[in-house]
Amino acid sequence: MIWTIILLLNGILFFYFLSNRTRSKREPPLDKGVIPWLGHALDFGKDAAKFLTRMKQKHGDIFTVRVAGRYVTVLLDPNSYDTVFQDTASLDFSRYAQVLMDRIFNLRLPSYKPDTEKAIMRRHFQGESLLCLNHVMEKHLRTLLTLETEDLNQSDWKQDGLFHFCYSMMFRAGYLTLFGGEQNNNCADAANVYSEYHKFDGLLMKMARSTLKSGEKQTTGMAKQRLWELLAQAGLRQESSLWLQNYRHHLQAEGADEETQRKAMLLQLWATQGNVGPAAFWLLAFLLTHSEAMRAVRKEFNSVTVPGTNTLNPQDQTPVFDSVLEETLRLTAAPFITREVLQNKTLCMANGQEYDLRKGDRLCLFPFISPQMDPEIHFEPEKFKYDRFLKADGTAKKDFFKGGRRLKYYTMPWGAGTNACVGKPFAIQSIRQFVFLVLFHLDIELHDREAQVPEVDVSRYGFGMLQPNKELQIQYKRRDQPFFQ
Ligand code: HEM
C-alpha cells in the first residue's frame, strides 16, 4: 500500500514538474493559464481564433501556451513564416500528422513515406493528367446537376440548404472522379458514401481532440466501418483515377495489409473532398448576398463563354472570379500549420529578434489571424470585398504590406512550403467549374431575401476550411435558356 502511495506521489510530482515550467530569458512569453496541466485547452478548443487573438494582444507575435500538458509556441508574424518552412531538420511535419491519422482514421502505416506519397500525387495532379481529371470532374458535375433538377418543371422552385447543396454535389463529383466505382450508373454509391462521410465529418473535431462522448464514439465507429467497406475496392478497379491506383500499389509495396489500405482510402477521401464543398458553399453564399460581386462574376463568365457552348476552359482568364475565390478563402480557410520541435533551436524572426524553442514542444502557425484577418494588411478584414485582390486595371493584385515590408504570404489558404496543398489547381478548377455551371443553368436565389451569410462554426478552427454554424436556405430552378445576364 505504502509503495503504491509513494509511486502515485512520484507520478504526480513528475507530471507537475513536466507540465509546470518557467520561462527562460531567451524564450517566447509563456502563458500557462490558471488550470494545472490543462492550461488553456478549453479556450483553445472552444474558439481558437478568439483565444489566439487575445493572446496576440497580450504577448505579441510569438508566445507559448500550455494546452493539455503540451507546450505550444504560436507564431503569428507572416514575415517570419519562411524560417519555419525552411527548417525541416529541427521542425517536423510528419509526427503530428501521424498522431492525427491514428486518432481520426485509426490508421498506422507500416512505413509512412510522406515524400513518396506527395510525389505520386504531384505526378497525377499536373499537366496532361490534371487536364484529364478536370474534364472528368466537369462531366460528373454536369450529370449530378442534371439529376438534381430533371424532375422539376421549368417553373418549379426547389428548396435546399446551400451548404448541403454544395458539399454533397462537390463531394459526389469528386468521389466519382478520383475513387470511381459506380456499379449502376445512377450515382447511388456516391450518395451512400457522402451520407456516411457526413456523419463522420460532423464529429471530426472531437475525434482530433479525443473528446468524443460514448454515443458519439459509436456513431463514428459505425460510420468509419461503413466507409471502410464502401471504399474496399477504391484504387483496385479501372474506374478509379490513376492516382488512386498508384497509391494502392504504393501501400501494397510498403507491406500495408488490406485493412490498413482501406483506412488509408478514407484518409485520402477526407484530404481530397473535405475542403472543396465548404469552399464552394462560402463562395456562392457571398455571391448571393453581394449583388455587385454576383453581377461582376456573371459578366466575366459571359465574356469568356464561347457562344453556343457552356464550357469554361481551365486556361480561360477569370481575374474577377479568382479575386472572389481568394477573398472567400481569406475569410474562411483556417488551417493550423503545426510542427514538432525535434531539437532545441533558435528561431530568428524577421525583425531580428531571436527566441529559443525547446525540444518536445510544438510550433503552430495560424495564418487566419495573420495575414488573413490582420487589419494592418487587409483594410476592414472582416468584410467581404470581392475586388480586394484586383488592381484598378483588372489584373490580380499581389502587393500587400506589413510593417513597411512587402509580404510574400498575404493570404495562405493552401498552406505553404513543402507541405502546401498538392491539389490546389484541381480544387480551383473544380470550384470554378461548379460555380460556372450553377450560374449558367440555374436560377438560384436566397429563400429569405434578407438572409445573411451565416457565422462560422467556431469549433472547427485549425482543420482547413471552416463550416457554417447553420444552413443558408436557397431555392433554385432550371433556366429555360441557360445564360448569364
Ligand atoms: C478549397 C480546397 C482546399 C483547400 C483550402 C486545401 C488546403 C490545404 C492545406 C492548407 C494543406 C496543408 C496542410 C498542412 O500544412 O498541414 C493541404 C494539404 C493537402 N491537400 Fe489540400 N486543400 C484543398 C483541396 C484539396 C484537393 C481537391 C486535393 C486533392 C485532390 C487536396 C490534396 C491535398 C493533399 C494531398 C495535402 C497534403 C500535402 C502534404 O502532406 O504535404 N487538397 N490542403
From TrEMBL:
Cited SUPFAM superfamilies: Cytochrome P450
Per its UniProt entry, which superkingdom is the organism in?
Eukaryota
Q: Where does substrate bind?
A: R103, L109, N275, R362
Q: Does the keyword Membrane apply?
A: yes
What is one GO cellular-component annotation here?
Answer: endoplasmic reticulum membrane
Query: What cofactor does its activity depend on?
Result: heme
- Swiss-Prot/TrEMBL keywords: Endoplasmic reticulum, Fatty acid biosynthesis, Fatty acid metabolism, Heme, Iron, Isomerase, Lipid biosynthesis, Lipid metabolism, Lyase, Membrane, Metal-binding, Prostaglandin biosynthesis, Prostaglandin metabolism, Transmembrane, Transmembrane helix
Membrane topology, as annotated, equals: Single-pass membrane protein
In short, the EC number is: 4.2.1.152, 5.3.99.4
Transcription regulation listed as a keyword: no
- Which PANTHER family does this chain map to? PROSTACYCLIN SYNTHASE, PTHR24306
**What the protein does?**
Catalyzes the biosynthesis and metabolism of eicosanoids. Catalyzes the isomerization of prostaglandin H2 to prostacyclin (= prostaglandin I2), a potent mediator of vasodilation and inhibitor of platelet aggregation. Additionally, displays dehydratase activity, toward hydroperoxyeicosatetraenoates (HPETEs), especially toward (15S)-hydroperoxy-(5Z,8Z,11Z,13E)-eicosatetraenoate (15(S)-HPETE).
Q: Which family does it belong to?
A: Belongs to the cytochrome P450 family.
Could you identify this protein by its name? Prostacyclin synthase
